[in-house]
Amino acid sequence: MLVTLKDVMKIAEERKIAVGSFNTPNLESLQAVIEAAEELDLPVIIQFAQCHESMIPLDTIGPIMVAQARRARVPVCVHLDHGETLPYLQRALELGFTGIMYDGSVLSYEENRTNSKKVVEMAAKTGAGVEAELGSMGRRESGAGDGSGEEDETKIYTDPLLAKQFVEETGIDLLACSFGTTHGIYLTEPRLDFDVVREVREKTAGIPVVMHGGSGVSREDFRKAILSGVRKINYFTYMDKSGGTAAREYAESIESGEPVFFSCVLERAREAMKENVKDAMKMFALLDA
User: Least CB-packed of 142, 148, 265, 283 within 10 Å?
Assistant: First the structure.
């Protein structure tokens, strides 16, 4: 069933868990995520990032995401991830998205605040929830890095006092915080500061905190983050990697000279992604504790 971002956050808060938010820039990943959620009977967020526009246009995948959410047997929020321009966010709302994220983290505080407030006003017309970001994960959503393995010094940890001011001035529903995570594949072991999460929650009267850069974090750190107040966890890189690994293994298993069928590759990738997503969902719902 199609629900709003605020609806799934209410469930997360009541259960003291985090809801998994998975990028689905193709039909196979979309099927994998919804099937995993249905098999585990858990709410889920399917999302599309603006940086994935080159893979498939929002106008193409968006209506499919909304339709699949409506047919699902569990609560599903359809969310725009890392929307960078207001017209793009507006288009997601027009397509029926029930959650949108404005990413103004690279802008000045004043510009981020002004634009986030405008996004809240836009979303209020449809009832969609709004996520915004304060601080910086270092690398952008694409996960691009220099491959050096060095710690990304461009990270800016979220200031809890500034977070309080930002939430009060914008009226957002969720806040993506920087507390040591990074988009993409981790080149070094992440050093996470859970005090940032706890203090943001305390200063903002309990706003749901969003964890970006979730792929590759240890099970113990996921648990600590959730117990500290994280209620939404973005996850894509390792899910995507699992599908790629399964596709490669299938292709390598074919005898020399035998044909490799694209449909079979997609099927193996979809099943691998579903299993990876199920494992992540169990962690986020604290079902493996």
Answer: 148
